[in-house]
Specification:
This protein has about 325 residues and is an alpha/beta fold. It has helices spanning about 10-20, 20-35, 45-55, 60-75, 85-100, 130-145, 160-170, 185-195, 215-230, 250-260, 280-290, 310-315; strands at about 120-125, 150-155, 175, 200-205, 240-245, 265-270, 290-295, 305. The chain folds into 2 domains: about 10-100, Up-down Bundle (Four Helix Bundle (Hemerythrin (Met), subunit A)), CATH 1.20.120; about 120-310, P-loop containing nucleotide triphosphate hydrolases (Rossmann fold, 3-Layer(aba) Sandwich). Helix 2 (about 20-35) runs antiparallel to helix 3 (about 45-55) and helix 9 (about 215-230) crosses helix 10. The longest helix is centred in the last third of the chain and has 18 residues, at about 215-230. It is found in: Cell membrane; Cytoplasm. Pfam families: SRP54 (PF00448), SRP54_N (PF02881).
């Protein structure tokens, strides 16, 4: 059995492989051209590799880190061949991801040492798959036998409340809502209070995805946190930022804005199955030093997966 041992179920692994197919094909097509006619890794190959990584949405800063590591290895071994490049890249990318992701996560679970309910506040701009991610998360937690309550604190859009209600009904979990235009913090307060009364295990709270005024966003998210802490101390337990992987570099910008507006503790990267920009997972994880907790690799309710860096790298370089 290889270092990249099979710790996913066969079905999950097949879904991950399929979800990363476009990214993998695009990357290796570019890589093949970068080393065409070369038997040794030299300055030209490294320059071409740099271009491949940047154009695969790994990001400039992360690309330079990877190139520096490969240059170090080339300088130690003057006969470093291009046929070894795939394996070396795989190792260096796995090492980068290891800094923020332990690599052995396979199941949807909540930390055992957290006082229940475990509260997840979900942030992200409109259109990234935030509501869908919340619905799929609720479904996965419920499958684990956990009692889940949703809170519709994105009161800026009526559609957001209704969309979340559709998911709550589909998954068959309770949802706390108020009218459009209500105070989001009030919804969060009611949601947490309801969850405590029901002895719930998990609370997932949706928030508005507006970035046009960062100060307002910052104030709103801070107020939601403060109000929740009146019900239960040290909540939320996780601030999950949802990013659309298909937007590539735009996802980096969104991550930058939200990490300035609030303390983001984990990431979910969605829509990886429909894009060749899967490299964005590597760059965002490295650049922001925030663990990627979930990835979306398909439209099905089970196609939101716990991010496992070992399996991700294995599928990407398969």
């Amino acid at each position: 059995m290889s270092l990249f041992k099979k710790i996913f179920s066969k079905e999950k692994k097949e879904t991950l492989d399929k979800g990363l197919e476009k990214s993998k094909t695009s990357f290796f097509n570019k890589l093949s051209k970068a080393v065409a006619g070369k038997s040794k890794v030299d300055d030209d190959v490294l320059d071409n590799l740099e271009e491949v990584l940047v154009s695969s949405d790994v990001g400039v800063e992360t690309t330079l880190k990877i190139i520096d590591k490969i240059e170090e290895r080339v300088s130690k071994d003057k006969y470093f061949g291009t046929d070894e490049l795939n394996g070396i890249l795989r190792e260096e990318i796995a090492a980068l991801l290891a800094k923020t992701n332990t690599g052995n996560e396979t199941e949807f679970a909540i930390p055992k040492d957290i006082e229940k309910p475990y509260v997840i506040m979900v942030v992200g701009v409109n259109g990234v798959g935030k509501t869908t991610t919340i619905g799929k998360l609720a479904a996965q937690f419920k499958k684990q036998g956990l009692k889940v309550v949703l809170g519709a604190a994105d009161t800026f859009r009526a559609a957001a409340i209704d969309q979340l209600q559709v998911w709550a009904d589909r998954v068959d979990v309770p949802m706390v809502r108020q009218e459009m235009g209500s105070d989001p913090a009030s919804v969060a307060y009611d949601t947490l209070q309801s969850a405590v009364t029901q002895n719930a295990d998990v609370v997932i709270i949706d928030t508005a995805g507006r970035l046009h005024n960062k100060v307002n966003l910052m104030n709103e998210l801070s107020k939601i946190k403060r109000v929740m802490q009146k019900v239960a101390a040290n909540k939320p337990d996780d601030v999950l930022l949802v990013l659309d992987g298909s937007t590539g570099q735009n996802a980096f910008e969104q991550a930058k804005q939200f990490t300035k507006a609030t303390e983001v503790t984990s990431l979910a990267v969605t829509k990886l199955d429909g894009t060749a920009k899967g490299g964005v997972v590597i760059g965002i994880s490295d650049q922001f030093q925030i663990p990627v907790k979930y990835i979306g690799v398909g439209e099905g309710i089970d196609d939101l997966q716990v991010f496992n860096k070992i399996e991700f790298v294995d599928s990407f370089f398969k």
